[in-house]
Amino acid sequence: MIKMIKGGVTAAKGFCAASTAAGIKYQNRQDMAMLYSEVPCAVAGTFTTNLVKAAPVKWDQKIVYESKKAQAVVINAGIANACTGEEGMRYCRQTAEKVGELLPVPEDQVLVASTGVIGMQLPMERICAGIEAMVPALSGETESGHAAAQAIMTTDTHEKEIAVEVMLGGVPVTIGGMCKGSGMIHPNMCTMLSFVTTDAAIAQPLLLEALQADVCDTYNMISVDGDTSTNDTCLLLANGMAENPVISEKNEDYDRFCEALRTVNEYLAKQMAGDGEGATALFEVKVIGAETKEQAKIISKSVITSNLTKAAIYGHDANWGRILCAMGYSGAQFDPEKVDLFFESAAGKMQIIKDGVALDYSEEEATKILSEPEVTAIADIKMGTEEATAWGCDLTYDYVKINADYRS
């Protein structure tokens, strides 16, 4: 059984967090955060599929795939450290070296993450001063994790964090997480940063396999605007301080760990989709009755990335033709004349089309259903038993306003 508990990245044993206002780009708000584990952690990570990768992504990939251990993470908001050449990589190293001066952590166990404007160089004096301010403030208190989740935001409207508890080998194990992401979000790792901490004892290869498999059904199933960022990073750190029997093979404990990890990542993914820049609604698309899961994924993602559909959701308009159209150009094969489509929200559920043809439904009732802050479209393609869910948001005037002056 998975139990929701209070907190975020500091909920698991041995993890501390701190944040500070370094003045990197934003004024009068915290814009740097730090995570630290009392002991070295097994580390896993997944990263952007964009060919243009930010320096922190390259730095973290080396640690995940070569060092395979980490003990600290330094995050800044405001400047992405992307498209910054050798200087950007040198700044990652300087960040790690600064942490190593103040904490007993080797350079190759310090992860870095950045989010914000592409092409600007980091002000390293402020970064280093921020680290100096955060190290003595590191704390395992819930409030410290909460403040860290706030500090990593850019255009996000609220912090995003979660913590759960699960029994592994008769021992309570905690998984906590925080993320940021509101724009430049698209399937295949989206500008999203996600940090998940756990006190579970688990072998690094299995930790990496669990994360990579889970990302396919969580973060890779969300989209805000169709743009895949240069900085997408999801990091998972496991310090083993729960002292559960070490998970070294795929057994019942591994399955339970994966289930709890799914709970955390799905929650964070939905939080990002629902907090899309300018968004007023979380738009969920569930494809059922598919022949294969991949078919269901392709179709559901096609619908949530359709700008016409997203605009219709903003207008609370049951324009089902746009959904069927997006399904049709997805590249997946299905029979349009067998599709049933439903809209659902807290206001009720309504079938809109049956076997590809519109029913005599009430537009007024449909508008009521589509006016809720969370709206689901369910498409049954009647080909099998597989299904998949994707998450997006509506497209509003404010999205254009936010991105028209993002650098100013």
From TrEMBL:
It catalyses: L-glutamate + acetyl-CoA = N-acetyl-L-glutamate + CoA + H(+); N(2)-acetyl-L-ornithine + L-glutamate = N-acetyl-L-glutamate + L-ornithine. It comes from the Bacteria. Substrate binds at residues 154, 180, 191, 277, 403, 408. GO terms for molecular function: L-glutamate N-acetyltransferase activity; L-glutamate N-acetyltransferase activity, acting on acetyl-L-ornithine as donor. One of its GO terms (biological process) is ornithine biosynthetic process. Heterotetramer of two alpha and two beta chains. This is Arginine biosynthesis bifunctional protein ArgJ. It comes from Roseburia hominis (strain DSM 16839 / JCM 17582 / NCIMB 14029 / A2-183). The gene is argJ.
